[in-house]
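> forwarded from #structure-qc
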């Protein structure tokens, strides 16, 4: 792993080693939130954490030219946040994002613009 850090609120502290039971962050490792990482010699797997179902959904629209970056962003967001999901509504053809509230979804809309340069518009919030 290229870099190990311990989080303290909004501060990051670089650390040299991790030990059993440590909670840490790393960069560049393809994994999901809640994954168990070992040295490969054991088959230990931690219980999955409980993730409540989404309470809010909104449609999201982007320009066709941004399709590739949009897909890349949605894949990243759903991998890093188990409370966020993205689906296609077969009936309307709209892309629907779901999460824990309107602010939660608005933050992902802003991240989409800032981190992936994808202009987008959110529809009206719907309570699930």
């Amino acid at each position: 792993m290229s870099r190990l850090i311990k989080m303290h609120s909004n501060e990051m502290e670089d650390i040299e080693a991790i030990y059993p039971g440590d909670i840490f962050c790393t960069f560049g490792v393809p994994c999901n939130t809640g994954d168990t990482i070992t040295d490969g010699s054991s088959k230990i797997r931690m219980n999955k954490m409980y993730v409540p179902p989404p309470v809010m959904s909104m449609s999201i629209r982007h320009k066709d030219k941004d399709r590739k970056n949009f897909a890349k962003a949605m894949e990243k967001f759903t991998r890093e946040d188990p409370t966020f999901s993205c689906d296609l509504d077969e009936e309307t053809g709209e892309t629907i994002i779901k999460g824990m509230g309107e602010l939660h979804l608005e933050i992902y809309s802003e991240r989409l613009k800032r981190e992936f340069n994808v202009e987008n518009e959110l529809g009206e919030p719907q309570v699930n």
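QC bot note: The mean pLDDT is 88. Residues 102-116 form the longest helix (15 residues).
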